[in-house]
Write a structure and sequence with these properties.
The protein is of the alpha+beta class. It is 37% helix and 19% strand.
Length: 156
Amino acid sequence: MKEQVLLDELDRRILNQLQQDASLSNIALARLVHASAPTCLRRVKRLHALGVIEKQLVIVSPAKVGAGVDVIAEIILDRQTAEDYNAFEALVQKAAEVLQCYRVSAGSDFVLILQLADMAAYHDLVHRLFTTATNVRNVRAFFSVHRSKFETRIVV
């Protein structure tokens, strides 16, 4: 487990603002967090260097770009060795439709968050990743009918 970074109040204000709008200029961010622009820039660079800020990105509306099927999939492997886990993780890393992959305990081995255009794309993914993978015993999929909350913000 990685070591936790100690954050002061200014760091927290910066992180909260950037999580709401990562496109803020340094000057605008400095105004919002009540700091000087050079101080703010130094802090943001430090937060990047420490790995607190992993990356800055844009969140795209799935429906607007034709990715209308949200799937949560539970995966059970036949064998649960470290090599088998690593092989499965390497397999899903290559699939752009897999947005998130979690190794979990008690029950399934993995939980995946998938974003696909339609059911045909889902069936293609299942065939490509899970049917041909010799170590996948079971796939249990949950298809979202309504997303009531989606958030990327971490409370700091």
